[in-house]
Amino acid sequence: MNVLGYAAPSPAGALEPFTFERRAMRPDDVLIDILYCGVCHTDLHLARNHGGFTTYPIVPGHEIIGRVSQVGEKVSRFKAGDMVGVGCMVDSCQHCKPCLIGWEQDCAEGPTFTYASLDRHDGMPTQGGYSDAIVVTEKFVLALPDRLDPAGAAPLLCAGITTWSPLHRWNVGEGSKVAVIGLGGLGHMALKLAKALGADVTLFTRSPGKEEDAFRLGADHVVLSSDPAQMASAAGRFDVIIDTVPYDHDVNPYMPTLTLEGVLVLVGYMGPLGTAVNAGGVVRGRRAITGSFIGGLAETQQMLDFCGQHGIVSDVEIISINQINQAYERMLKSDVKYRFVIDMASLKS
């Protein structure tokens, strides 16, 4: 099946229209007409080969909202016309321990990502949501609650689950004290979700002037992390810190703000930390530094259902597909509040 999308032809090339082939449908597949696709920093990194492993041409996009147009004969959960979502993965081995406990993102054989992977069955390269249609196995398709605005819901498939998963894993709820480091695409979702879970929520930021937005998004307090006095006043306060900073940074100043057995969870950065971690800040108080990577299918559906119950979506700026290259440049400057979402109807205009 031929579909139209936008692809990066090379590390330095601008994204441009690209016609490519989707695999034929299998009995357990769902064919989805894509309506909206969020724009993630990962899209830019892979399009520009920042990791050194991108194969071109590449169609990015893993925050997909669309409408089912066709289902295979073995599909039971969806029918034509249903509104659905697809996140960062479209398959996994389904038999290793992580897959069996619902952590498909940690598949021992490696998950099949929505783009920049190879299909496990036929070896075709996967291509993402900057396109008009996608074929996905039923298990990796998510039901979109009726209450959610589809454009605002798109980033929930990455930014939403990335921040929900550690909040869920560390049992954040009424009475919890949570801090979020950084106010961007991930950070603004962490504030919204932690607040809806009943936590007392603090934003750590290095930039003055974030207070109005932070309070609107759910923060109860704002701490300027570049101010030693404000940092000292936060000592021993937080059960969980969600660190959304997407680049190398020093985590040591945040460790004293954790409670006994508190945990700092890295979700925004996957490279080497250039600053050594002071073991004393971990040993004292039995504190921990850990990480979290997106979330499994059941957990992602749980997050979507929670967002449906509470009316939570991302703050988005909707763009046309022909604005994607400008959006990447603006994203590098943090010039978006807080996530770009492509209206894929623009692909045909």
Describe this structure in words.
This protein is 23% helix and 26% strand. The protein is an alpha/beta fold. It folds into 2 domains: 2-158 and 295-348, Alpha-Beta Complex (Quinone Oxidoreductase, Chain A, domain 1), CATH 3.90.180; 160-291, NAD(P)-binding Rossmann-like Domain (Rossmann fold, 3-Layer(aba) Sandwich). The strands form 4 sheets. Strands 3, 4, 5, 8, 9, 16 and 17 form a 7-stranded mixed β-sheet that branches. Strands 12-11-10-13-14-15 form a 6-stranded parallel β-sheet, covered by helices on one side. Helix 10 links the parallel strand 16 and strand 17. Helix 4 (159-169) crosses helix 5 (185-196). The radius of gyration is 20 Å and the shape is globular.
